[in-house]
Specification:
The chain has 597 residues and is an alpha/beta fold. 37% of the residues lie in helices and 22% in strands. It binds 5-amino-5-deoxy-1-O-phosphono-D-mannitol.
Length: 597
């Protein structure tokens, strides 16, 4: 059960894993292994060598201490009275460690988690107050973020938990209960879930699951019924989740569109935003990390052009620490697939602290960002498993397009006729994306030919530049090839010195007004020996005069071109990575959901 649950959480980290199992009153047995979960599975013969009826497990993405068996969780106190797994970062672990060292504790790992375990052990033994009080005392002392699951030797058949910032849920079964950091881990056993709140604790036994506050009082919580299907998170015949998810893009786009286009008109009232509110915003800030930030880069052009509202795009990790000067009537849009990204969540809280309204564009229902935002636009991409985002990115773009049209209408800058045209163009996107995917063999051929290159540069202007940023991230993330995206006009201010004979340049040019300008920049690099791959809209055949290889995407309203140009870029990265023999779904050093800062 533990191994199976962990396999659904591997997207959170996969550099080592471990389990701790108890069989009735017998002592706990801990088995850990460096590497993928499969190594642990082998080591325990699929769990058979550690039988039991109560246990905790963990799959790790290293923050403190290198990925090793020693640093893998679970961690145990010296006499094994306390054993725990932990997600998050204990920021003041050094100070706590010194306190424990002064009290005679020793440490075998480099992790902050071992410090947390031994701190619980310390309070548990010093005050003899029982698990909940010992954990509560620790919570008061620990700074940072944590989702902790703890077993105590004196309490067989019981698991305790504590949460601050890092996600955690309880699953309510029949004669069995669960704690996990995400729903897929327990979906095979139950669909009834309680979301553990911030600074809350939990205690589960086979018969009972209770949430407890810092005062030690049991609190009533709402039980949520999970309606989505575990099947959706399986590979369904594809070699990799990434390819499966690329194939799901037309559906993700279509479902997301239909959630807001009703009876031929746009309606985003489901987010909680009223027409009055939309009219009142003076500016928009878009905040996200990685690909979500790149969505913001595209959205900036679309929103400013269609809704005539000033937009700023910020990296969540920067926004959260630089005390941005937000106007009270601004709208902050936090984009996140997981809804749990630590930096994006912190950015949301910073905006709310300044009294500014927040719209979350989120894929995971009930995630922290969805719960804390004032308004939520759910992208309907379904569960995304591959570390490299594809369908969620596309659904987020659609979410922003719809927001742009809705704001444009509310602000009186888009005529009904124009809105109709835009909506009809948006509705044609799923079919166009499908056509690009059907033609994937050409991209595969090209990728195979160039899989051994060392560097690649992506060039574009405006919206095309924003799409290039995503194409470049995809490439480096899964193929480990050095790649950079440049605003085409900026190249000659330094980077062009890197171009030499055979350097791969991918130029994206879909916007009529600046098509010739981008082509000129492509000619500049060609003159210096670069190999040019061009991506443009059907009809722009003059691209062939410049580029060595051209990929065409169907024509669309230019505002929505990134939805189309990103597909060949995703496929290109995918095929290059496959050709290089890389584990596409789980590239090194990464985690799907970055719940630490
Ligand atoms: O879950 P989020 O959308 O908040 O995640 C943000 C980034 O971590 C994510 O987009 C990341 O850049 C992807 N691995 C890119 O493919």
């Amino acid at each position: 059960m533990l191994l199976e649950g962990l396999s659904k959480l591997e997207y959170r980290g996969y550099d080592s894993a471990g389990i701790a199992v108890r069989d009735g009153e017998k002592d706990v047995r801990v088995v850990k292994a460096r590497g993928r979960l499969s190594v642990l599975e082998e080591k325990t013969d699929g769990g058979r060598t550690v039988p039991g009826n109560c246990g905790i497990g963990h799959t790790r993405w290293a923050t403190h201490g290198e990925p090793s068996e020693n640093n893998a969780h679970p961690h145990v106190s010296e006499d094994s009275s306390v054993v725990a797994v932990h997600n998050g970062i204990i920021e003041n672990y050094q100070e706590l460690k010194e306190k424990l060292l002064r009290n005679g504790y020793t440490f075998y790992s480099d992790t902050d988690t071992e410090v947390a375990v031994k701190l619980i052990d310390y309070y548990y033994k010093k005050y003899k107050v029982g698990p909940i009080d010992a954990i509560a005392k620790c919570m008061v002392r620990m700074r940072g973020s944590y989702a902790l699951a703890v077993m105590f030797r004196d309490y067989p058949g019981e698991i305790y938990a504590a949460r601050k910032e890092s996600p955690m849920i309880l699953g309510l079964g029949d004669g069995e209960n669960f704690i996990a950091s995400d729903v897929p881990a327990i979906l095979k056993h139950t669909r009834r879930v309680i979301y553990v709140g911030n600074l809350e604790m939990a205690r589960i036994t086979p018969e009972k699951a209770e949430i407890i506050d810092l005062n030690g009082d049991v609190i009533e919580k709402e039980v949520t019924e999970i309606t989505w299907d575990a099947e959706a998170a399986e590979k369904g015949g594809f070699e990799h989740f990434m390819m499966k998810e690329i194939y799901e893009e037309p559906r993700a786009i279509e479902d997301t569109l239909h959630s807001a286009i009703k009876e031929g008109t746009i309606d985003i009232s489901g987010t909680g935003l009223t027409e009055e509110e939309m009219k009142s915003f003076s500016s928009v800030w878009i905040v996200g990390c990685g690909s979500a930030y790149h969505v913001g880069m595209v959205a900036q052009y679309v929103l400013e052009d269609l809704a005539k509202i000033p937009v700023r795009v910020e990296l969540a990790s920067e926004f959260r620490y630089r005390q941005p000067l937000l106007a009270k009537d601004a709208l902050v849009v936090i984009i996140s697939q997981s809804g749990e990204t630590a930096d994006s969540l912190a950015a949301l809280r910073e905006a709310k602290r300044q009294g500014v309204k927040v719209l979350g564009i989120v894929n995971v229902v009930g995630s922290a960002i969805a719960r804390e935002a004032d308004y939520v636009f759910y992208t309907l991409a379904g569960p995304e498993i591959a570390v490299a985002t594809t369908k969620a990115y596309s659904a987020q773009l659609i979410g922003c397009d719809l927001l742009a049209v809705a704001l444009g209408r509310a602000r009186g800058v888009l005529e009904e006729e124009k809105i109709k045209e835009l909506l009809s163009d948006l509705l044609s996107l799923p079919g166009k994306v499908e056509r690009i995917i059907e033609d994937k063999e050409r991209i595969q051929w090209f990728a195979n030919k160039f899989a051994n290159i060392n560097d690649v540069f992506f060039l574009g202007r405006g919206l095309d530049y924003a799409a290039c940023m995503e194409g470049s991230l995809k490439m480096k993330e899964i193929s480990y090839i050095h790649s950079e995206a440049y605003a085409a006009g900026e190249l000659k201010h330094g980077t062009i010195s890197l171009v030499e004979k055979g350097t791969m340049i991918i130029g994206v040019a879909t916007q009529k007004r600046i098509f010739e300008k981008t082509i000129s920049n492509m000619v500049e690099v060609k003159t210096r020996g670069a190999y040019l791959c061009g991506i443009t809209s059907a009809g722009n055949y003059s691209m062939e005069d410049t580029a060595d290889f051209v990929l065409y995407v169907p024509k669309s309203d230019e505002h929505f071109s990134a939805t189309l140009t990103v597909i060949p870029l995703q496929l290109l990265a995918y095929y290059v990575a496959v050709n290089r023999g890389i584990d596409v779904d789980k590239p090194r050093n990464l985690a799907k959901s970055v719940t630490v800062e």
